[in-house]
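Input C-alpha coordinates:
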Protein backbone atom coordinates (compact mmCIF):
# COMPACT_ATOMS: atom_id res chain seq x y z
CA UNK A 1 0.00 0.00 0.00
CA UNK A 2 1.14 3.57 -0.63
CA UNK A 3 2.44 5.21 2.53
CA UNK A 4 1.87 8.74 3.81
CA UNK A 5 4.16 8.56 6.87
CA UNK A 6 5.24 12.00 8.04
CA UNK A 7 2.75 13.77 5.79
CA UNK A 8 0.07 16.24 6.86
CA UNK A 9 -3.29 16.15 5.10
CA UNK A 10 -6.32 18.43 5.34
CA UNK A 11 -9.49 16.55 4.38
CA UNK A 12 -12.68 18.59 4.00
CA UNK A 13 -16.10 17.07 4.66
CA UNK A 14 -14.60 14.19 6.62
CA UNK A 15 -17.32 13.80 9.24
CA UNK A 16 -19.10 11.11 7.25
CA UNK A 17 -19.45 9.39 3.90
CA UNK A 18 -16.60 9.40 1.41
CA UNK A 19 -14.65 11.94 3.47
CA UNK A 20 -14.69 9.61 6.47
CA UNK A 21 -13.42 6.81 4.21
CA UNK A 22 -10.57 9.03 2.99
CA UNK A 23 -9.67 9.93 6.60
CA UNK A 24 -9.54 6.23 7.57
CA UNK A 25 -7.44 5.18 4.58
CA UNK A 26 -5.03 8.13 5.00
CA UNK A 27 -4.63 7.41 8.73
CA UNK A 28 -3.94 3.75 7.97
CA UNK A 29 -1.30 4.93 5.51
CA UNK A 30 0.38 6.85 8.33
CA UNK A 31 -0.68 10.44 7.55
CA UNK A 32 -1.44 13.08 10.15
CA UNK A 33 -4.98 14.07 9.21
CA UNK A 34 -6.76 17.32 10.01
CA UNK A 35 -10.41 16.85 9.24
CA UNK A 36 -12.68 19.82 8.56
CA UNK A 37 -16.46 19.75 8.55
CA UNK A 38 -19.40 21.89 9.55
CA UNK A 39 -20.97 18.96 11.41
CA UNK A 40 -20.19 18.70 15.13
CA UNK A 41 -20.25 14.91 14.61
CA UNK A 42 -16.85 15.32 12.96
CA UNK A 43 -15.39 15.13 16.48
CA UNK A 44 -17.02 11.73 17.07
CA UNK A 45 -15.77 10.44 13.71
CA UNK A 46 -12.26 11.66 14.51
CA UNK A 47 -12.41 10.03 17.98
CA UNK A 48 -13.41 6.69 16.40
CA UNK A 49 -10.53 6.82 13.94
CA UNK A 50 -8.09 7.95 16.65
CA UNK A 51 -9.18 4.98 18.81
CA UNK A 52 -7.84 2.65 16.10
CA UNK A 53 -4.47 4.42 16.19
CA UNK A 54 -5.05 7.17 13.61
CA UNK A 55 -3.32 10.53 14.00
CA UNK A 56 -6.37 12.68 13.38
CA UNK A 57 -7.89 15.89 14.72
CA UNK A 58 -11.14 17.65 13.93
CA UNK A 59 -11.70 21.34 13.30
CA UNK A 60 -15.14 22.80 12.71
CA UNK A 61 -14.53 24.77 9.53
CA UNK A 62 -16.98 26.03 6.93
CA UNK A 63 -15.10 25.90 3.64
CA UNK A 64 -17.13 28.80 2.25
CA UNK A 65 -15.93 31.12 5.03
CA UNK A 66 -12.67 32.66 3.84
CA UNK A 67 -11.58 34.07 7.22
CA UNK A 68 -12.07 30.83 9.14
CA UNK A 69 -10.37 28.76 6.42
CA UNK A 70 -7.37 31.10 6.52
CA UNK A 71 -7.15 30.84 10.31
CA UNK A 72 -7.59 27.06 10.21
CA UNK A 73 -4.81 26.68 7.62
CA UNK A 74 -2.46 28.83 9.71
CA UNK A 75 -3.31 26.68 12.76
CA UNK A 76 -2.44 23.49 10.85
CA UNK A 77 0.95 24.95 9.92
CA UNK A 78 1.48 26.13 13.51
CA UNK A 79 0.58 22.70 14.94
CA UNK A 80 2.16 20.43 12.34
CA UNK A 81 4.73 22.59 10.52
CA UNK A 82 3.39 22.08 7.00
CA UNK A 83 0.57 20.96 4.72
CA UNK A 84 1.44 18.25 2.19
CA UNK A 85 -2.03 17.30 1.01
CA UNK A 86 -5.34 19.10 0.55
CA UNK A 87 -8.40 16.98 -0.21
CA UNK A 88 -11.32 19.14 -1.36
CA UNK A 89 -13.98 16.50 -0.67
CA UNK A 90 -16.87 18.41 0.95
CA UNK A 91 -19.87 18.90 -1.29
CA UNK A 92 -23.65 19.26 -1.26
CA UNK A 93 -26.62 18.53 -3.47
CA UNK A 94 -29.80 20.56 -3.88
CA UNK A 95 -31.51 18.51 -6.59
CA UNK A 96 -34.46 19.89 -8.52
CA UNK A 97 -35.35 20.06 -12.21
CA UNK A 98 -33.88 23.24 -13.69
CA UNK A 99 -37.26 24.82 -14.45
CA UNK A 100 -38.17 24.57 -10.75
CA UNK A 101 -34.74 25.20 -9.24
CA UNK A 102 -34.55 28.26 -7.00
CA UNK A 103 -31.74 30.78 -7.13
CA UNK A 104 -30.84 29.75 -3.59
CA UNK A 105 -30.52 26.06 -4.58
CA UNK A 106 -28.31 27.08 -7.49
CA UNK A 107 -26.15 29.46 -5.43
CA UNK A 108 -25.68 27.09 -2.49
CA UNK A 109 -24.32 24.30 -4.67
CA UNK A 110 -22.05 26.64 -6.66
CA UNK A 111 -20.79 28.21 -3.46
CA UNK A 112 -20.09 25.05 -1.44
CA UNK A 113 -18.88 22.80 -4.27
CA UNK A 114 -17.01 25.26 -6.46
CA UNK A 115 -16.32 28.65 -4.86
CA UNK A 116 -14.90 26.85 -1.82
CA UNK A 117 -12.03 25.59 -3.97
CA UNK A 118 -10.96 29.19 -4.48
CA UNK A 119 -10.97 29.64 -0.71
CA UNK A 120 -9.26 26.43 0.48
CA UNK A 121 -6.79 26.00 -2.36
CA UNK A 122 -5.70 29.64 -2.29
CA UNK A 123 -5.09 29.41 1.46
CA UNK A 124 -2.83 26.32 1.31
CA UNK A 125 -0.88 27.05 -1.89
CA UNK A 126 1.64 29.56 -0.46
CA UNK A 127 2.71 26.97 2.15
CA UNK A 128 3.01 24.20 -0.46
CA UNK A 129 4.96 26.50 -2.79
CA UNK A 130 7.39 27.40 -0.02
CA UNK A 131 7.86 23.71 0.81
CA UNK A 132 8.28 22.79 -2.86
CA UNK A 133 5.76 19.97 -2.49
CA UNK A 134 2.02 19.48 -2.54
CA UNK A 135 -0.91 17.31 -3.54
CA UNK A 136 -4.29 18.93 -4.20
CA UNK A 137 -7.13 16.55 -5.00
CA UNK A 138 -10.77 17.58 -5.41
CA UNK A 139 -14.07 15.73 -5.67
CA UNK A 140 -15.63 15.72 -9.11
CA UNK A 141 -18.39 13.23 -10.00
CA UNK A 142 -19.51 10.80 -12.65
CA UNK A 143 -22.38 13.25 -13.18
CA UNK A 144 -19.93 15.88 -14.45
CA UNK A 145 -19.71 13.71 -17.56
CA UNK A 146 -22.99 11.80 -17.57
CA UNK A 147 -25.31 14.53 -16.30
CA UNK A 148 -28.30 13.66 -14.13
CA UNK A 149 -31.92 14.75 -14.01
CA UNK A 150 -32.30 17.46 -11.36
CA UNK A 151 -28.59 18.12 -11.07
CA UNK A 152 -27.81 21.03 -13.40
CA UNK A 153 -26.31 22.93 -10.46
CA UNK A 154 -24.35 19.94 -9.13
CA UNK A 155 -23.11 18.69 -12.53
CA UNK A 156 -22.00 22.22 -13.46
CA UNK A 157 -19.81 22.41 -10.34
CA UNK A 158 -18.37 18.94 -10.79
CA UNK A 159 -17.47 19.61 -14.44
CA UNK A 160 -15.97 22.98 -13.44
CA UNK A 161 -13.74 21.22 -10.91
CA UNK A 162 -12.18 19.21 -13.74
CA UNK A 163 -11.40 22.43 -15.65
CA UNK A 164 -10.04 24.06 -12.49
CA UNK A 165 -7.80 21.05 -11.99
CA UNK A 166 -6.42 21.03 -15.52
CA UNK A 167 -5.63 24.76 -15.41
CA UNK A 168 -4.16 24.95 -11.91
CA UNK A 169 -1.87 21.97 -12.59
CA UNK A 170 -0.21 24.03 -15.33
CA UNK A 171 0.48 26.88 -12.93
CA UNK A 172 1.87 25.04 -9.91
CA UNK A 173 3.53 21.89 -11.28
CA UNK A 174 6.88 23.71 -11.31
CA UNK A 175 6.70 23.98 -7.51
CA UNK A 176 6.37 20.23 -7.02
CA UNK A 177 2.63 20.52 -6.55
CA UNK A 178 0.26 18.22 -8.44
CA UNK A 179 -3.45 18.92 -8.88
CA UNK A 180 -5.90 16.15 -9.69
CA UNK A 181 -9.47 15.12 -9.07
CA UNK A 182 -11.44 11.96 -8.39
CA UNK A 183 -14.81 11.43 -10.06
CA UNK A 184 -16.68 8.93 -7.87
CA UNK A 185 -19.47 6.89 -9.41
CA UNK A 186 -22.34 5.51 -7.35
CA UNK A 187 -20.99 5.37 -3.79
CA UNK A 188 -22.78 4.33 -0.60
CA UNK A 189 -23.01 7.32 1.78
CA UNK A 190 -25.57 9.45 3.62
CA UNK A 191 -26.02 11.24 0.27
CA UNK A 192 -27.17 7.98 -1.39
CA UNK A 193 -28.85 6.40 1.68
CA UNK A 194 -31.83 8.72 1.17
CA UNK A 195 -32.57 7.14 -2.24
CA UNK A 196 -35.39 4.59 -2.65
CA UNK A 197 -34.26 0.92 -2.82
CA UNK A 198 -35.43 0.52 -6.42
CA UNK A 199 -33.30 3.50 -7.52
CA UNK A 200 -30.27 1.95 -5.82
CA UNK A 201 -30.96 -1.47 -7.43
CA UNK A 202 -31.30 0.16 -10.87
CA UNK A 203 -28.05 2.05 -10.28
CA UNK A 204 -26.16 -1.14 -9.39
CA UNK A 205 -27.36 -2.80 -12.62
CA UNK A 206 -25.40 -0.13 -14.54
CA UNK A 207 -22.13 -0.94 -12.76
CA UNK A 208 -20.02 -3.65 -14.44
CA UNK A 209 -18.38 -4.72 -11.16
CA UNK A 210 -21.89 -5.43 -9.86
CA UNK A 211 -21.89 -3.44 -6.65
CA UNK A 212 -22.15 0.06 -5.26
CA UNK A 213 -18.81 1.67 -4.38
CA UNK A 214 -17.68 2.18 -0.79
CA UNK A 215 -16.12 5.13 0.97
CA UNK A 216 -12.95 3.07 1.38
CA UNK A 217 -12.86 2.38 -2.39
CA UNK A 218 -12.73 6.16 -2.81
CA UNK A 219 -10.15 6.48 -0.05
CA UNK A 220 -7.75 4.28 -2.02
CA UNK A 221 -8.30 6.30 -5.21
CA UNK A 222 -7.43 9.47 -3.31
CA UNK A 223 -4.50 7.70 -1.65
CA UNK A 224 -2.87 6.90 -4.98
CA UNK A 225 -3.10 10.51 -6.18
CA UNK A 226 -1.89 11.79 -2.78
CA UNK A 227 1.16 9.52 -2.75
CA UNK A 228 4.70 10.67 -3.53
CA UNK A 229 4.75 7.90 -6.14
CA UNK A 230 2.05 9.68 -8.17
CA UNK A 231 4.34 12.68 -8.81
CA UNK A 232 4.07 12.35 -12.60
CA UNK A 233 0.27 12.14 -12.55
CA UNK A 234 -0.97 15.70 -12.90
CA UNK A 235 -4.19 17.36 -14.10
CA UNK A 236 -6.18 14.15 -14.38
CA UNK A 237 -9.63 13.04 -13.36
CA UNK A 238 -9.50 9.56 -11.88
CA UNK A 239 -12.83 7.93 -12.77
CA UNK A 240 -13.63 5.63 -9.85
CA UNK A 241 -17.00 4.22 -10.87
CA UNK A 242 -16.71 0.45 -11.30
CA UNK A 243 -16.84 0.94 -15.07
CA UNK A 244 -20.30 2.50 -14.97
CA UNK A 245 -19.71 5.21 -17.50
CA UNK A 246 -17.60 4.81 -20.62
CA UNK A 247 -15.08 7.65 -20.51
N1 LIG B 1 -21.83 9.58 -2.77
C1 LIG B 1 -21.70 9.56 -4.09
O1 LIG B 1 -22.25 8.67 -4.75
C2 LIG B 1 -20.86 10.59 -4.79
C3 LIG B 1 -20.69 10.46 -6.16
C4 LIG B 1 -19.92 11.38 -6.85
C5 LIG B 1 -19.30 12.43 -6.16
N2 LIG B 1 -19.48 12.57 -4.82
C6 LIG B 1 -18.83 13.70 -4.17
O2 LIG B 1 -17.99 13.24 -3.13
C7 LIG B 1 -17.98 14.17 -2.06
C8 LIG B 1 -18.43 13.48 -0.76
O3 LIG B 1 -19.73 12.96 -0.98
P1 LIG B 1 -20.52 12.12 0.14
O4 LIG B 1 -21.43 11.22 -0.61
O5 LIG B 1 -19.60 11.55 1.13
O6 LIG B 1 -21.41 13.30 0.78
P2 LIG B 1 -21.94 13.50 2.28
O7 LIG B 1 -23.08 14.43 2.19
O8 LIG B 1 -22.17 12.18 2.94
O9 LIG B 1 -20.69 14.20 2.99
C9 LIG B 1 -20.30 15.51 2.64
C10 LIG B 1 -19.66 16.15 3.86
O10 LIG B 1 -19.32 17.50 3.51
C11 LIG B 1 -19.66 18.33 4.61
N3 LIG B 1 -19.89 19.72 4.21
C12 LIG B 1 -20.94 20.21 3.50
N4 LIG B 1 -20.85 21.54 3.39
C13 LIG B 1 -19.70 21.91 4.02
C14 LIG B 1 -19.06 23.16 4.27
N5 LIG B 1 -19.60 24.31 3.83
N6 LIG B 1 -17.90 23.18 4.97
C15 LIG B 1 -17.37 22.02 5.44
N7 LIG B 1 -17.93 20.80 5.24
C16 LIG B 1 -19.09 20.75 4.56
C17 LIG B 1 -20.93 17.70 5.17
O11 LIG B 1 -21.22 18.13 6.48
C18 LIG B 1 -20.61 16.21 5.06
O12 LIG B 1 -19.98 15.73 6.23
C19 LIG B 1 -18.91 15.31 -2.47
O13 LIG B 1 -18.15 16.35 -3.04
C20 LIG B 1 -19.80 14.66 -3.50
O14 LIG B 1 -20.31 15.59 -4.40
C21 LIG B 1 -20.26 11.67 -4.12
Amino acid sequence: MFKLEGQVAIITGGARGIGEGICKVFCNAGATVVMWDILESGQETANKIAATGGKISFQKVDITDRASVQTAVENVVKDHGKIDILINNAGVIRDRSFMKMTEQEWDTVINVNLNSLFVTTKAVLPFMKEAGYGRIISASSINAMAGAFGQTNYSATKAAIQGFTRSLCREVGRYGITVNCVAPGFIQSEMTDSMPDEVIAAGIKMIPVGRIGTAEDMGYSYLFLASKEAGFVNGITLHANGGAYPI
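Residues 12-13, 15-19, 36-39, 62-64, 89-92, 112, 139, 141-142, 184, 186-187, 189-192 surround nicotinamide-adenine-dinucleotide (CB under 6 Å). The mean pLDDT is 96.
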